[in-house]
Design goal:
By secondary structure, the protein is α+β, with helices and mostly antiparallel strands. The protein contains 3 helices and 4 strands; from the N terminus they run E-E-H-E-E-H-H. The strands form 2 sheets. The protein has a two-stranded antiparallel sheet with strand order 1-2. Strands 3-4 form a two-stranded antiparallel ribbon.
């Protein structure tokens, strides 16, 4: 089976291939010698993100403060 590489360096795969892979927004790409390896990137759960924030020392108050700052009136 073949894929098409467009002039913009985009890869178009046949429906037969795409239907066998779980639909994800992003794919990790690696070059292994002469092969291109595509691996779907699975979204993390909310708990995994929360655990990562806690491990980084970021509290719920820090997140709330950052949201308030981002939503402040500009000008």
């Amino acid at each position: 089976m073949h894929v098409k590489i467009t002039p913009n360096n985009q890869i178009t795969s046949p429906d037969q291939i795409a239907s066998q892979v779980e639909a994800v927004g992003y794919t990790d790409v690696e070059v292994d010698s002469t092969a291109i390896v595509l691996t779907p990137v699975l979204a993390q759960s909310v708990e995994a993100v929360r655990d990562k924030l806690i491990a980084s020392g970021i509290s719920e108050k820090d997140v709330a403060d950052a949201c308030a700052w981002a939503r402040r009136p500009k000008g």
